[in-house]
Amino acid sequence: MDLKKLKDQLQTEVDTAFLYDSIAAIQSDDNLSRVLLSLGEIEKGHAKHMFDKVLTLEPNYKMPSPSGRAKFQLKLGKIFGYSSIISNLSSIEKQFAVNSIKNKLKSGEKPTGFEHNHLNIIEAVNNNAALNVSGGLLSKFESRHKSVGGNALRAAVLGSNDGLVSNMSLVMGVAGAAVSNDTILLTGIAGLLAGAISMALGEWLSVQSSRELNQRQIDLETEELEASPEEEKKELVLLYQAKGMNAVEAQKLADKAFENPQTAIDAIITEELGIDKEELGGSAWEAATASFVLFAIGAIIPLYPFMFLDGKNAILLSVGSSVIGLFGIGAAITLLTGKSILFSGFRQVSFGLVAAAVTYGIGSLIGVSLAG
After folding, report:
1. For 164, which of 4, 61, 354, 367 is 20 to 30 Å away at the CA?
2. What pLDDT digit, counting tens, does each position of 88-126 carry?
3. Contact 155, 168 (CB under 8 A)
4. Which residue range is the domain that position 352 belongs to?
5. Which residues are listed as membrane-spanning (predicted)?
6. pTM beyond 0.90
């Protein structure tokens, strides 16, 4: 057995249990709190099982505490919304299910069909409108980010990264040609605006298309409900069962939903399509504005030194600021990928510096060629 791999799996189980317990503690809905606490207890059992395996290879090993990354992720939940953490836990449970099935097939054991139960439960929690937490400040943040969705952190990281890397490459390319500060500033500002506008337009089209697709799906489900209501009810019962309910509870809930056509279509839209009828995919204009701002924030980092310095001093400060920004973005990405902060941070710095060096070299060659 690979000891490092076992320790990594153990840390993942410990972190997952910690996040389940922490989110359960701030729930205003008792039922959801019980579900999350139950999932946390199961993960603790998995952690104990994994810990026993580690002890067979390293007898003096101590049960690890929740990692700094998990604690930091919980703090960020207060800003970006706890749905981002639930989405991440959903990804972890999905990987657990895939690994469980692979291991069973490899050992000749037949999958039971229950490997995805945790995933179904946490996804049901993720889509549950009752996932509310207490606290005035948090409620404001939740409502602000609700239409952006649980991937607000991902959008923030990637948007800033695009702006920083693209404008750093552009600025370094022009600086390499040894042009004046005014030219570098003009080029950098043009790159910032062009990139931010392009990103905003792309995000607007993406969200607007999603809204239109969701509306089309709602229209189709409404037509199906009118044509065959009993078949739609059967589908809803099966879906509830897939999310962890027993057959009796699932049937009762479906019967209640189908007491009138409006509650029936609302249940189908929420449960089958996973669509919030009030938002239909979020605000296209809000998404576009956020994309514009995030790209611009990243793009200003390599550009601002040229506003008050020139020559090598400006270039060095630009590179230094960009390195710090790239490392921070790489560190933030670990909240999505689970990789080491140092590894991800320095990898991001390396990629950014390579891109800048290439464009600076090309700019230098062009500058020499034009001067000649």
Report:
1. 367
2. 666 666 666 656 666 666 666 655 444 444 555 555 555
3. no
4. 157-209+288-371
5. 184-207, 287-308, 314-337, 349-371
6. no
pLDDT digits (tens, 9 = 90+) for 262-308: 888 777 777 666 666 655 556 778 878 888 998 999 999 999 999 98
Q: What is the pLDDT of residue 65?
A: 92
Residues 174 and 300 in one domain: yes
Those residues whose C-beta lies under 8 Å from the C-beta of residue 99, and which sit 6 or more positions away, are none
Reading the block at residue 210, the tokens are 């999603």
Residue with tokens 């040229």: 306
Angle at 102 between CA 109 and CA 120, to 5 degrees: 100
- Examine the fold and report which residue of 108, 125, 142 is the final residue of a domain before the chain moves on: 125
Cα distance between residue 35 and residue 130, in whole Å = 12
Q: Which of 233, 231, 228 is nearest to 264 (CA)?
A: 233
Integer Cα distance of 309 and 286 in angstroms: 35
Domain identity same for 20 and 119: yes
Closest of 170, 212, 175, 211 to residue 192, by C-alpha: 170
Closest Cα to residue 279, out of 150, 122, 169, 101? 150
User: What values do phi and psi take at 274, rounded to 5?
Assistant: 65, 35
245: Cβ–Cβ under 8 A, 6 or more apart, which residues? 253
Task: Kindly report the average pLDDT of the chain as a whole number.
Answer: 75
- Return the beta strands (E) in 40-80 as ranges: none
Shared domain check, 118 and 41: yes
Most distant CA pair in the chain: distance in Å? 84
Cα angle 55, 56, 61 (rounded to 5 degrees) comes to 20
